[in-house]
Structure prediction request, 335 residues.
Amino acid sequence: MKVAVVGATGLVGTKMLQVLAERNFPVTELLPVASERSVGKEVEFKGAKYKVVSMADAISAKPAVAIFSAGGSTSLEWAPKFAEAGITVIDNSSAWRMDPTKKLVVPEVNADVLTADDKIIANPNCSTIQMVVALQPLHQKYQIKRVVVSTYQSVTGTGKKAVDQLMGERKKAMDGNSDEYPMAYKYPIDLNAIPQIDVFLENGYTKEEMKMVKETCKIMGDDSIRVTATTVRIPVMGGHSESVNVEFANDYNLDDVKTLLINSPGVIVVDDNANQQYPMPMEAHEKDEVFVGRLRRDETQPNTLNMWIVSDNLRKGAATNAVQIAEYLLQKGML
Prediction:
C-alpha cells in the first residue's frame, strides 16, 4: 500500500503522518510530498526517515491513495493529475467541497455515498465535521429544521504562523520580550476574540460561515436544513468549540437524546452538571472523537435543543477524518 501525503511538512500534513502511524494504516511505502523548496528534506514516520519528493515524482510512483493538505490552488492544479493516473485523492482543502461532481464525506455520516469511481474525495471544513457528527443521529430521529451555530476556533486552524503569533504575544506580555513574531491576524489574538474567520462575502458573512451552511446540507444530504453561523477565532490551542442551537420538526426527550448520542459512532458525551463536567478543547486535544455536552432544552421555543460540541480540529477536523475515509475505501476494496 503506497501512500502519498501531499503537504507533508505543514501543520496538518505532519498530523496526517502521526494519525496514519497511530491507526496502523497499512503503509508499505510512504511518499511525503511538498513544494519544490522542501524536496529533499526529511520527515519521520514510524521511526524511519523519508525524503520529501516532488508532485511529479509522487505521481510516477503510482501510490494507491494521496492525502492532500497543501491548499486549494495546489489541489486544483494537482489533484486531477493524480486522479488521471488512477490515484485516489482525499483532499483537505476547500477546492472540491462544493463541486457537485465530488463527494464531501464524513465517514460516520455519509461514507456510503463513496464508490470506486470517486477519484477525488473532499474532506470537509473542520468546524463542519464535528458538528455533523453530533447532528446526524439527531437528524435521523427528530428531523432537523434549523441550526444556529457560533464557533470558538483554535488558532491551529489558521496554521503555524497563527500559533507563533499567539505565543509571541504571550511571551511579550509575560516577560517584556521584544523578539519579532509573525502576524497571522490583523489584530492581536492573545486576550482577544476575533469574529472573522476567512474573508467577508457580499452577504456580510465570512467564507468560513458560509462553508458551514453549505457543507452541512451537502454532507447530510438534506437541503431543507437551514443553517446560520457566526465563526470566531479565540486564543486557544487543542480544538474548536461550538455552541449549537438545533430546532427539530419533532419533539424529543432529553434522556433519549443523551442515550442516542452515547451510542453514536465517534461521539463521547460529557454532560455532568453536578460535577462541572463538560467538553473543553484541552480535554479534546490529541483525541479523535467529537465531544458533546451542555445538553439542555431551549425554553424559548418548542422542539429545540442547545448543545456544546468540541473536537480537535487538526485530528477529527482534518487528518483523522481523511485517514478514516482511506480506511473505509480500503475496507470496501476500493483501494
